[in-house]
Prior knowledge:
Elements: E1 10-14, E2 19-20, E3 24-30, E4 33-38, E5 51-58, E6 61-67, H1 73-83, E7 90-95, E8 101-114, E9 122-129, E10 134-135
Antiparallel strand pairs: 1-2, 1-7, 3-6, 4-5, 6-9, 7-8, 8-9, 8-10
Amino acid sequence: xxxxxxxxxxxxxxxxxxxxxxxxxxxxxxxxxxxxxxxxxxxxxxxxxxxxxxxxxxxxxxxxxxxxxxxxxxxxxxxxxxxxxxxxxxxxxxxxxxxxxxxxxxxxxxxxxxxxxxxxxxxxxxxxxxxxxxxx
Length: 136
């Protein structure tokens, strides 16, 4: 089994074309899976709840951290999306060092900037996924 180093992993994002997001220190993708509903009936013969799939999948979210640069267009595209009067979906691609990719579309839902002693100014973003995720 091969292990792939994280060095060289790229996060790309954009509304019209993908650009590499600068100074990313961490990226995480969470795909939540099928939406279920409680299908337990009153005449169940045991004490356990039963669940059924609704037929839909909750796509999940993507979170990432960067060293914040207010002059970097790859960073300001997220703050612009948050403050725009009409929200646009943002296309994302995570490219790993072995050339495998994960593509998805999301809307930036929160942005946090942190300034702490003995550290660079950092920004964290979490974006809610919309639609299917493609693994390449």
